[in-house]
C-alpha cells in the first residue's frame, strides 16, 4: 500500500478523524446550548493534519498545541471522556475542570498542552527537544501552529535555535488561511510559510493538509530525520478553517460561498472516503462499523461529562505548586 501505510492504519485514520469531527460538532452544539463555559475554537476541516502527523509519532513523543487544540489532543490518543469533562468544567477533566478548552494537556501521552497564547508552543517544543537531546533519548517533539503564529518572534527564535543545535523537533504549520479574522495575504509577506525555513538552513516541505496520506508521508520522513539526529524540519500543511475563529463568530470577514466551496473541495474526511472507496482500500461495512463506534463513544463522553461533579471552590488553590524535597546542607 502507498506511503508505507501499516496494517489497520486506514481504520485508525478514519476513526481518529471522525472522532475529532464528531467531538467538535458536539461541543459546538453544547456550547451554543449554554452547557460549556468559556470560549471554544473548533478544529473542523483540519483533521487530516493532526491525525496524519500524530500517526507518525509514538506515545512517548511530544506535541505542543494551539488554542485550537482538541483535534491534536484526540489525534495523540487522549481519552475523550476526560477531554469532554474538561470542557464542561468538571473535576474529572484533564485539568480537573480548571483549564477549559484552551489548556487541555496529558503528559502521559506526550501532549504538553493546548495554549491560549498565539505562538506559545514554539519554545515549549524546542525546550522538550533540547531535553531529549541532553538526556540522549530517542523521542521527537512536534510543534503545531497556525499561519498567523509564523509572524511572531517565537517562531523565528525557536526555528533558529533548533537548527543551530540540530534539535529533534518538527514544526508543523497548519496554514488554514485565516489568522483570527485576517486573511493570510494581508499580514504575511510570503504566500508559503515553508519558504521561511530556508532562513535557518532547515529543510521544509509543503503538502495538502487535507490529505491524510500526504501529511503522514511528510511527517514520517521528518520524524525519522529528527529521531536520527539530523535536526528539525518545517512542514506546511495547506488546509482551511471551516468554522469561525470561535463558536459564535459572526464571520463577517468572509463569504458563506467561500466556506461552502472549501467544504466541497477540501473536506479531509470526504477526500479520505472518496479515496479508500474508489481504490477498494476499505469497505462500506468497515466504515459503518467505525461510524457506529464513534457515535457510541460520543454519547458516552457527554454522559460522563454531564454526570461528573464540578470542582469545589477551595480546589482553585490546589495544583499550584510542586512539592520538592530539598536536602539539608551537612
Give the helices and strands, then pairings:
Elements: H1 9-32, H2 47-54, E1 62-64, H3 70-75, H4 80-87, H5 122-135, E2 141-146, H6 153-164, E3 169-175, E4 178-179, E5 182-183, H7 184-187, E6 204-208, H8 212-227, E7 233-238, H9 256-266, H10 268-278, H11 284-307
Parallel strand pairs: 1-2, 2-3, 3-7, 6-7
Antiparallel strand pairs: 4-5
Helix pairs in contact: 1-2, 1-10, 1-11, 2-8, 4-11, 5-6
| CATH architectural designation | 3-Layer(aba) Sandwich
Largest sheet: 5 strands, parallel
Number of β-strand runs: 7
How is the largest sheet built, in terms of strand order? 1-2-3-7-6
User: What is the total number of structural domains?
Assistant: 1
| Form type | globular
- Report the average pLDDT across residues: 95
**Helix segment tally:** 11
Name of the CATH class: Alpha Beta
Order of helices and strands: HHEHHHEHEEEHEHEHHH
Based on CA atoms alone, the radius of gyration comes out at 20 Å
**Low-pLDDT ranges:** none
Distance between the termini: 65 Å
Q: What share of the residues lie within helices?
A: 40-55%
Structural class: alpha/beta
What this model shows, in words?
By secondary structure, the protein is α/β, with parallel strands linked by helices. It has a single domain (2-308), classed as Thiamin diphosphate (ThDP)-binding fold, Pyr/PP domains (Rossmann fold, 3-Layer(aba) Sandwich), CATH 3.40.50.970. Helices cover 42% and strands 9% of the residues. It is built from 11 helices and 7 strands. It has helices spanning 9-32, 47-54, 70-75, 80-87, 122-135, 153-164, 184-187, 212-227, 256-266, 268-278, 284-307, and strands at 62-64, 141-146, 169-175, 178-179, 182-183, 204-208, 233-238. The protein has a 5-stranded parallel sheet, sandwiched between helices. Strands 4-5 form a two-stranded antiparallel ribbon. Strand 6 (204-208), helix 8 (212-227) and strand 7 (233-238) form a beta-alpha-beta unit. The relative contact order is 0.16. The model has no long low-confidence stretch (mean pLDDT 95). InterPro entries: DH_E1, PDH_E1_Alpha_Subunit, THDP-binding.
Amino acid at each position: 500500500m502507498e506511503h508505507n501505510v501499516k496494517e489497520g492504519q486506514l481504520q485508525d485514520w478514519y476513526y481518529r478523524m471522525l472522532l475529532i469531527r464528531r467531538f467538535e460538532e458536539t461541543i459546538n452544539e453544547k456550547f451554543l446550548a449554554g452547557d460549556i463555559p468559556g470560549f471554544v475554537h473548533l478544529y473542523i476541516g483540519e483533521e487530516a493534519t493532526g491525525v496524519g502527523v500524530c500517526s507518525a509519532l509514538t506515545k512517548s513523543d511530544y506535541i505542543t498545541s494551539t488554542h485550537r487544540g482538541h483535534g491534536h489532543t484526540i489525534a495523540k490518543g487522549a481519552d475523550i471522556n476526560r477531554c469532554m469533562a474538561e470542557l464542561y468544567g468538571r473535576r474529572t477533566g484533564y485539568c480537573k475542570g480548571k483549564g477549559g478548552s484552551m489548556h487541555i494537556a496529558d503528559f502521559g501521552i506526550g501532549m504538553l498542552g493546548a495554549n491560549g497564547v498565539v505562538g506559545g508552543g514554539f519554545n515549549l517544543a524546542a525546550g522538550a527537544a533540547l531535553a531529549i537531546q541532553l538526556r540522549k533519548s530517542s523521542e521527537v517533539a512536534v510543534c503545531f501552529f497556525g499561519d498567523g503564529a509564523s509572524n511572531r518572534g517565537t517562531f523565528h527564535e525557536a526555528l533558529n535555535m533548533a537548527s543551530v543545535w540540530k534539535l529533534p523537533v518538527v514544526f508543523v504549520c497548519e496554514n488554514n488561511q485565516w489568522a483570527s479574522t485576517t486573511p493570510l495575504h494581508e499580514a504575511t509577506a510570503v504566500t508559503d510559510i515553508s519558504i521561511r525555513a530556508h532562513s535557518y538552513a532547515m529543510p521544509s516541505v509543503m503538502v495538502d493538509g487535507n490529505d491524510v496520506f500526504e501529511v503522514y508521508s511528510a511527517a514520517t520522513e521528518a520524524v525519522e530525520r529528527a529521531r536520527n539526529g539530523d535536526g528539525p524540519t518545517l512542514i506546511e500543511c495547506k488546509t482551511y478553517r471551516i468554522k469561525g475563529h470561535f463558536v459564535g463568530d459572526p464571520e463577517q470577514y468572509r463569504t458563506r460561498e467561500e466556506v461552502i466551496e472549501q467544504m466541497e473541495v477540501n473536506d479531509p474526511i470526504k477526500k479520505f472516503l472518496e479515496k479508500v472507496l474508489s481504490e477498494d482500500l476499505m469497505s462500506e461495512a468497515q466504515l459503518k462499523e467505525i461510524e457506529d463506534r464513534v457515535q457510541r463513544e460520543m454519547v458516552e463522553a457527554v454522559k460522563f461529562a454531564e454526570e461528573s461533579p464540578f470542582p469545589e471552590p477551595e480546589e482553585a488553590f490546589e495544583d499550584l505548586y510542586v512539592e520538592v524535597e530539598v536536602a539539608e546542607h551537612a
